[in-house]
Amino acid sequence: MLMAGQGGAWTMGDVVEKSLEGPLAPSTDEASQKRGDLVEILNGDKVKFDDTGLSLILQNGLDTLRVENALTDVILCVDIQEFSCHRVVLAAASNYFRAMFCNDLKEKYEKRIIIKGVDAETMHTLLDYTYTSKALITKQNVQRILEAANLFQIISERTKPRMHEFQSEVFMIIGGCTKDERFVAEVTCLDPLRRSRLEVAKLPMTEHELESENKKWVEFACVTLKNEVYISGGKETQHDVWKYNSSINKWIQIEYLNIGRWRHKMVVLGGKVYVIGGFDGLQRINNVETYDPFHNCWSEAAPLLVHVSSFAATSHKKKLYVIGGGPNGKLATDKTQCYDPSTNKWNLKSSMPVEAKCINAVSFRDRIYVVGGAMRALYAYSPLEDSWCLVTQLSHERASCGIAPCNNRLYITGGRDEKNEVIATVLCWDPEAQKLTEECVLPRGVSHHGSVTIRKSYTHIRRIVPGAVSV
């Protein structure tokens, strides 16, 4: 390729050589500091070549492109200032921007993006750090920078506090119904340590549900994978599946289920999401689907041995457990079904002490805890010993309640008692003290909901009034 210039034609090589005379070519003294290490390891007639300086050259080149506003494809608007950037650089350095640009959100296609929750000076510092690995930290700006780095989920460990001052482990109550059998659109997010509720994006399909006069509740199956919440099902036999990204506080729709269902369960095992059993509108099914987050696709796994719905399910030590449930609309089973992904086979383990459905389970340390249904008790199963034991008695039935581990304790939320009335209390089981206490009272009773645990950032979540959770 030829380019016209004074005194004749320039070749591409001339252009490259001339460009190297610019800012990208450091002085001799600086070069030794910026080129990194060059390591050659001889192995017979082979040489392993490791040039760590190349990454520095690439980083310097990207920063030069940013300064010159070359090849930039997005503008971040903070206060009254604008920052031209490269989407690929932001996504590589920040899980927040990766979620924004790698999912089907409107920001993925927008040239200008308004950024809230951070001031322009702090944003400038973070972008400088992202492109150059350098930042000026002072007593005045250190807290703002750490908070912003946590907000944007900057991947580098250098940007994280030494302790989780800006994050808290919380449990979420998703979907379900109230005492008048109305759909719960809000997601209740509770922080037991700070005794507060956090604001979270409402469930998908909220507008449709609020406009509808149908009072049937939405009963989601839910689970967490890499701090994202996956939900499926809902009303009757829906195929919809959504995931909640805690970094950007949004629900994102993913690939549909192959078989629509409800009153099923979701479990994470080996980096994949399993959707198990349930009711397809005609009968209880034994179908099992697995979701690959990387390829956004569902595939089929070995079917259950016993067709069930409204059962408990969880994973433990590389295996999946399905406990109890209803083989039909009237009966319950005590069967414990175990799935081994290495063989793609199910087998039966020791049965529960009682037959039960409308139950939930959670894996915690070396046990699987099961609660709900008509049981006035919390039971535990030991996969190692293949045995069951009674953990503690409950004062009431808690059919279709939720259970989630949080801060080394188990929290049992809502449910329905023996009079079929919804329960608003949250119970806490402390395994160290072997004690069950009433933790708090929810703003309203709820049942048929999901309950999961995630880590939530405090720097970009507004606390609801402290009195919202009473003890």
Describe this structure in words.
The protein has a 4-stranded antiparallel beta sheet, with no helix packed on it. It has a 4-stranded antiparallel beta sheet with strand order 11-12-13-14, with no helix packed on it. Helices cover about 15% and strands about 35% of the residues. The N and C termini lie far apart (about 75 Å). The N terminus and C terminus are likely disordered. α6 crosses α7. The protein is of the alpha+beta class and about 475 residues long. It is globular, with a radius of gyration of 27 Å. It folds into 2 domains: about 110 residues, Potassium Channel Kv1.1, Chain A (2-Layer Sandwich); about 300 residues, Kelch-type beta propeller (Neuraminidase).
Short précis:
InterPro entries: BTB/POZ_dom, Kelch-typ_b-propeller, Kelch_1, SKP1/BTB/POZ_sf. With 471 residues, this protein is of the alpha+beta class.
Give the total of beta strands: 31
- Termini separation (Å)? 75 Å
Main sheet strand line-up: 10-9-8-31
User: Please, how many domains?
Assistant: 2
Identify low-pLDDT runs: 1-34, 161-165, 207-215, 459-471
Report the average pLDDT across residues. Answer: 83
Radius of gyration: 27 Å
What is the overall shape?
globular
Name given to the CATH architecture of the largest domain: 6 Propeller
- Oligomeric description of these chains: single chain
Question: Helix amount, in percent?
Answer: 10-25%
Give the biggest sheet. 4 strands, antiparallel
InterPro entries: BTB/POZ_dom (IPR000210), Kelch-typ_b-propeller (IPR015915), Kelch_1 (IPR006652), SKP1/BTB/POZ_sf (IPR011333)
Pfam families: BTB (PF00651), Kelch_1 (PF01344), Kelch_KLHDC2_KLHL20_DRC7 (PF24681)
Keywords: Kelch repeat, Repeat
Domain BTB: 72-139
